[in-house]
């Protein structure tokens, strides 16, 4: 795990490079907290991951599968939101490619950076992205204009 996160930020974007061995969620959440970012949209991502856990929602529960080997990060999309409890929530879906050129995708629950991850977030200036529990208890997106 790296000691210092490599990133740059302005009013509209947060651009981050995570290093080999970084816990993806722990490192990213630490940076978001440090920068007081509660709403963001992931618009670009490249790199590799290992020790990944992906999930598929059956309508009642997540069916999870783990992948230990390094995999190419082919797509990673989603958003940064604040829950009603005030916690930062990362809602991310990934598509990863393995060495035999097959892919796996789903809700990203866990990952370790392999080699590097390069991420670009759009920071909405007038829209707040929050997550609230609805219906069956899942966290749903409720965007609203900032006042």
Q: Helices and strands in order, then pairings?
A:
Blueprint: E1 6-9, E2 13-19, H1 24-34, E3 40-57, E4 62-67, E5 71-83, E6 88-97, E7 103-122, E8 127-134, E9 138-145
Parallel strand pairs: 5-8
Antiparallel strand pairs: 1-2, 2-7, 3-4, 3-5, 3-7, 5-6, 6-7, 8-9
Organism: Acetomicrobium hydrogeniformans
GO molecular function, one term: DNA binding
Domain PPC: 8-145
Helix count? 1
Overall pLDDT score: 94
Structural class: mainly beta
Share in β-strands:
over 45%
Q: In one word, what is the shape?
A: globular
Which residue ranges are poorly predicted, with pLDDT under 50 across at least 5 consecutive positions?
none
Q: How many beta-strand elements? A: 9
Annotated CATH homologous superfamily of the domain at 11-60 and 71-121: Hypothetical protein, similar to alpha- acetolactate decarboxylase, domain 2
Element pattern in H and E: EEHEEEEEEE
What is the CATH class designation of the domain at 11-60 and 71-121? Alpha Beta
Helix content: under 10%
Radius of gyration: 15 Å
CATH 2nd-level architecture of the domain at 11-60 and 71-121: 2-Layer Sandwich
CATH topology of the domain at 11-60 and 71-121: 60s Ribosomal Protein L30, Chain: A
**Major sheet summary line:** 9 strands, mixed
Describe the structure.
With 147 residues, this protein is mainly β. It has 1 helix and 9 strands. Strands 1, 2, 3, 4, 5, 6, 7, 8 and 9 form a 9-stranded mixed β-sheet that branches. A hairpin with a 5-residue loop joins strand 6 and strand 7 (103-122). The radius of gyration is 15 Å and the shape is globular. The model has no long low-confidence stretch (mean pLDDT 94).
């Amino acid at each position: 795990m790296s000691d210092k996160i490599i990133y740059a930020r302005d009013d509209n974007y947060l651009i981050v490079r995570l290093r080999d061995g970084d816990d993806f969620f722990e490192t990213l959440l630490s940076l978001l907290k440090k920068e007081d970012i509660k709403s963001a949209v992931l618009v670009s991502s490249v790199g590799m991951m290992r020790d990944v856990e992906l999930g598929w929602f059956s309508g009642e529960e997540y069916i999870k599968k783990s992948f230990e080997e390094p995999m190419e990060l082919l797509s990673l999309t989603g958003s940064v939101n604040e829950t009603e409890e005030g916690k930062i929530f990362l809602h991310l879906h990934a598509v990863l490619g393995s060495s035999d050129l097959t892919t796996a995708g789903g809700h990203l629950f866990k990952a370790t950076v392999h080699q590097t991850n390069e991420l670009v977030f759009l920071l909405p200036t007038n829209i707040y992205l929050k997550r609230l529990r609805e219906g069956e208890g899942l966290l749903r997106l409720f965007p609203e204009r900032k006042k």
